[in-house]
Amino acid sequence: xxxxxxxxxxxxxxxxxxxxxxxxxxxxxxxxxxxxxxxxxxxxxxxxxxxxxxxxxxxxxxxxxxxxxxxxxxxxxxxxxxxxxxxxxxxxxxxxxxxxxxxxxxxxxxxxxxxxxxxxxxxxxxxxxxxxxxxxxxxxxxxxxxxxxxxxxxxxxxxxxxxxxxxxxxxxxxxxxxxxxxxxxxxxxxxxxxxxxxxxxxxxxxxxxxxxxxxxxxxxxxxxxxxxxxxxxxxxxxxxxxxxxxxxxxxxxxxxxxxxxxxxxxxxxxxxxxxxxxxxxxxxxxxxxxxxxxxxxxxxxxxxxxxxxxxxxxxxxxxxxxxxxxxxxxxxxxxxxxxxxxxxxxxxxxxxxxxxxxxxxxxxxxxxxxxxxxxxxxxxxxxxxxxxxxxxxxxxxxxxxxxxxxxxxxxxxxxxxxxxxxxxxxxxxxxxxxxxxxxxxxxxxxxxxxxxxxxxxxxxxxxxxxxxxxxxxxxxxxxxxxxxxxxxxxxxxxxxxxxxxxxxxxxxxxxxxxxxxxxxxxxxxxxxxxxxxxxxxxxxxxxxxxxxxxxxxxxxxxxxxxxxxxxxxxxxxxxxxxxxxxxxxxxx
Amino acid sequence: xxxxxxxxxxxxxxxxxxxxxxxxxxxxxxxxxxxxxxxxxxxxxxxxxxxxxxxxxxxxxxxxxxxxxxxxxxxxxxxxxxxxxxxxxxxxxxxxxxxxxxxxxxxxxxxxxxxxxxxxxxxxxxxxxxxxxxxxxxxxxxxxxxxxxxxxxxxxxxxxxxxxxxxxxxxxxxxxxxxxxxxxxxxxxxxxxxxxxxxxxxxxxxxxxxxxxxxxxxxxxxxxxxxxxxxxxxxxxxxxxxxxxxxxxxxxxxxxxxxxxxxxxxxxxxxxxxxxxxxxxxxxxxxxxxxxxxxxxxx
Lengths: 588, 299
What we know:
The structure holds two protein chains of two kinds. Chain A is of the alpha/beta class. Chain A has two domains: 231 residues, no CATH class; 252 residues, 3-Layer(aba) Sandwich (Rossmann fold). Helices cover 59% and strands 10% of the residues of chain A. Chain A is built from 28 helices and ten strands. In chain A, the strands form two sheets. Chain A has a six-stranded mixed β-sheet, with helices on both faces. In chain A, strands 2-1-4-5 form a four-stranded antiparallel β-sheet, with helices on one face. In chain A, helix 11 crosses helix 12 and helix 11 runs parallel beside helix 13. By secondary structure, chain B is mainly alpha-helical. Chain B has one domain: ABC transporter involved in vitamin B12 uptake, BtuC. Chain B is globular. The termini of chain B are far apart. Classes of the chains: A alpha/beta, B mainly alpha. At the A-B interface, helix 4, helix 5, helix 11 and helix 13 of A face helix 4, helix 9 and helix 11 of B.
């Protein structure tokens, strides 16, 4: 199906400049093609990874100048100048990405805005290099040595470049890449606990979007043979943003649709050039306030739902794989323990955990309990790697985790659930479970498999389904987390953690806030984890539940361990009773 | 030589005071709503143009200031009402994701630039001085000649900043802002009118841009596109203060202004870019600003 669409598009690109006589339309189509490439990059950045950039024109300008200057002043052939220009824009992207890695949201918007501004000003004032506003003349056009056929050849070059990028974009949207980016966008701590190296991903997307903007810039430079700094103002950045928003943010075909609409508006309102800023501003307001899903959203609404379902080749719900395929028998015999040695952690002077020792035997369920503020969540977060301990050591089996970041701990077999659920709202339940499976999945040949197979993730999806079945929630596989009851969402989170094939699982208040029936279901789920050979450490307030599922209990109070033993011992321990109920002496 | 340095220092401090004022508007809006106006610089530009036109029309300075501030207050109200609040109904799933407000406020900025182009033309204008008789009016302090206008701008900006701090930390309204910043729902339960506080915050932010605009008119040449640089610089200054520390913004603003004045003196071609580059590098190493604390994203 996909293949035929792409072949059709390729034919259309091939035929277009031969059929269309009017060179102006060919010129416009060229512009649509290369501008779309920049917009696709922005769509990855903003639509998938949720990072705002107000400096895309900067990368576009860097690509354009690098290629144009190398080709004119240094006489480089275009096949060398263009790739080099892409490297230069990539480096610029990485440098700005360094800021992106450390900051987010508003800061990132500010930093990119400043970056774009700096590039514009440098282009304007460094006249010896860039020609400033007067421009760089005599830039060779990309005509493959044939002046008469130049525009046609150029159109083919940009058209196929666009098609190539568009196919890549479709793949990212339909595969784990897009899923991972959405996870990072929604919740970074979630992404880290499923083993994603968040800073690398964020910077990577930034570099990718910079390279795509740079590519568009090089095409721009070699389309007209003239580059002036006027082209790269903040308006250019806003135009790219207008295009991505108008098309539909976070949709693979949003960028090309948005670019077509934007250029149509530009051409249509050419006589109103005195109002061009107002038109851009008005579009931004109108689309964001009135049609936030953009043109793709409007089209979706217009197309009858039956036809849409027939057209959309969304993979249907998979058949559950046999459980043996998901959890090999061998792994069950390989349980490892978790040991926490003398962990201390303080927040600005307050000791939240003090010399905490904890030893969880392989393949057992161990509970960590204590009154509110006893430091239980701190201990869990320190083990998971979301907080750094001030001192102490953490090991699973023989592996020392103390110095490792959260995502590496996750990859070594440490999974967790959160006290406040962390599910990715923009993905269906099944995909949330798939997120858990990413870190040990095989990716080689993923792209080719996707290209030829309409259901390229069949195997992993089957496994994810099987895990959902294990928890009795397979019927919700296609629903979105927000549509589920709180208890079911907790089960989904459990399923997601199990999908990571963990050796050790940390459960932060697994039954808080759910009804007794659901408590029972979660309890069964936890016993099943033990069955699968997973070592469990859980924090919980519901004593009845804790006593029922735990093999051993450790009690914390004021950041210190006050008791440790099997449930019956702990229940009888006077210190524990004192910590929970207080003693007579304390109240007087 | 010392004369020159002192003159540069004073110009730097005067510009720094303006940056601080503009950045305060960003800070207060961000504090209460985690959003701010990406057209803050364009608001400043409108304030500067309005005050220029009124003064040229012979309206006394004080009345001009009052009228400009009323107009700016309305503009701030309109911004919140028509470009920011309507986004709430989409929740987090709006078109621009969590950051739709960046694009809508930037869109308002473009519209304002276009209006300014239509009303005042695209060329540069000079605003008459506010306090002294002429632009070049100098006063002599300790044997050194300084521009009177700059000294007065600086002094006035200081007064506004002090008043702002007083409002924020001592008044009931300031405490309401902090309560809304901490948790809007809890603030609502405490009987604070959250919506009104949010509107007021944007009105105040707009007023601060207006004051900056009135004050800056006589110091620089104004044209419809000066806004962007002020937005960027005010954002940079607010980022130095970590968007959370009002003292950091004051220090950041003055530092930024002075650094810029000196780097402009030594490199007239690219001088204004160095402070921005410094801020970017600074942010890469200290992402939470001068006094900000890094908070882990843990739930």
